[in-house]
Design a protein that fits this description.
Shape: globular
Number of helices: 11
Distance between the termini: 52 Å
Biased composition (Low complexity): 327-341
EC number: 2.5.1.61
Number of domains: 3
GO molecular function: hydroxymethylbilane synthase activity
Strand order of the largest sheet: 2-1-3-10-4
Subunit structure: Monomer.
Largest sheet: 5 strands, mixed
Strand content: 15-25%
Modified residues (S-(dipyrrolylmethanemethyl)cysteine): 261
Order of helices and strands: HHEHEHHEEEEHEHEHEEHHEEEHE
Number of strands: 14
Bound molecules: ligand PBG
CATH superfamily of the largest domain: Periplasmic binding protein-like II
Length: 352
């Protein structure tokens, strides 16, 4: 193996750019957890980097239980999937970490940067049900497995004839419980099924009007050390600005809501529409951010449109926080902006 740039005195970014073939002399250590989904996602990012001329080695990273508790405490309590990879990155055992964005806590980590958010997969949730059925086609009392309070709360609104059972596990074990007859159906992210090549097993795609995804669902985060300018720049080439704008809005909602409540939250941002003279000069055009939250057993939706992703997220959060503050019955006059697919004022019975 040829010596790497890591063992030579550090070069400035400008010096590296002058070196012919400089990118090929440094092998990138791309960290991945061991699950099929994680290795598939990491492999996809590795291939994108290889297509740009980089040499990439996949590095399996042990789960959080193997790591020092001190480092984990530094990072924070949530995000067990992300913690081990982030620790490995901070300790210079890997150069690049690939995460499912929806599993990544919204709080930034000092020393790390989200160098790229590549183009997202389908953000919707799908159903895998027995006998090719849809949720509407399942009989009264049929059992649907999900470990997600967000999914359970929305199922209670649009499919109240179904029972929810709290389940955990990877894609294979969750679908396996339908195949074995333990469950009538499970709800999963379309993106996960697509990435492992099993999207054809979905029996129904749930539209946003019924089921809003987790903020960031379907998108990946490519994380680097912020002082590693070369790797950060190489990874930044994988960024999709439209996806980044959408997930910024979705995560801004989550960040503001996490400060004010612990409700299950769904959200999706969509670009497009107002690209004409009224679009405020934003070349990305207008964005619409739609959110769901189950606030103390009362499920509500709100929708906002505008140009700035982060302020949209905050605006939407403030609508939910205002709902929460008005502890009495929901105010029908407080309906969202015209055109919203509002499903408010439902009473839910949450099983999880
Ligand atoms: N919480 C688990 C998880 N984290 C990321 C995905 C895959 C979908 C994605 O990348 O958003 C899944 C599986 C699921 O929710 O069904």
């Amino acid at each position: 193996m040829t010596p790497t740039l890591r063992h030579t005195p550090p070069l400035t970014e400008a010096e590296q750019e002058c070196l012919p073939g400089a990118t090929a002399t440094r092998r990138l250590r791309l960290g991945t957890r061991a699950s099929e989904l994680a290795t598939t996602q990491a492999g996809w990012v590795a291939d994108l980097l290889r297509a740009r001329g980089h040499q990439v080695d996949l590095v399996p990273v042990r789960t959080e239980g193997d790591e020092s508790t001190a480092s984990l405490r530094e990072i924070g309590g949530t995000g067990v999937f992300a913690s081990a990879l982030r620790t490995a990155l901070l300790e210079d055992r890997i150069d690049v970490a690939v995460h499912s964005l929806k599993d990544l806590p919204v709080a930034p980590v000092p020393g790390l940067v989200l160098a790229a958010i590549p183009e997202r997969e389908d953000p919707r949730d799908v159903v895998v049900a027995r006998d090719g059925l849809t949720l509407a086609g399942l009989p009264e009392g049929a059992v649907v497995g999900t470990g997600s309070p967000r999914r359970a709360a929305q199922l209670a609104v649009f499919a109240p004839h179904l029972q929810i059972r709290d389940i955990r596990g990877n894609i294979d074990s969750r679908v396996g419980q339908v195949r074995s007859g333990t469950l009538d159906a499970v709800v999963l992210a379309a993106a996960g099924l697509t990435r492992v090549g099993r999207i054809d097993e979905a029996t129904e795609v749930l539209p946003f009007v019924q089921m809003l995804p987790a903020p960031g669902q379907g998108a990946l985060a490519v994380e680097c050390r912020d002082d590693d300018e070369a790797v950060t720049a190489w990874c930044a080439e994988l960024d999709d600005p439209d996806t980044r704008a959408c997930v910024e809005a979705e995560r801004a909602l989550l960040a503001r809501l996490e400060a004010g409540c612990t409700a299950p939250v769904g959200a999706v941002a969509r670009l497009g529409g107002a690209t004409g003279p009224d679009s405020g000069g934003d070349p990305r055009g207008a964005m619409t951010l739609t959110g769901f939250a189950d606030l103390q057993g009362r499920a509500t939706r709100h929708e906002v449109s505008g140009a700035d992703p982060v302020s949209l997220g905050h605006q939407l959060a403030d609508l939910f926080l205002a709902d929460l503050a008005s502890t009495g019955t929901p105010d029908p006059a407080g309906a969202p902006t015209a055109g919203a697919d509002h499903a408010g004022n439902h009473t839910t019975e949450r099983d999880t």
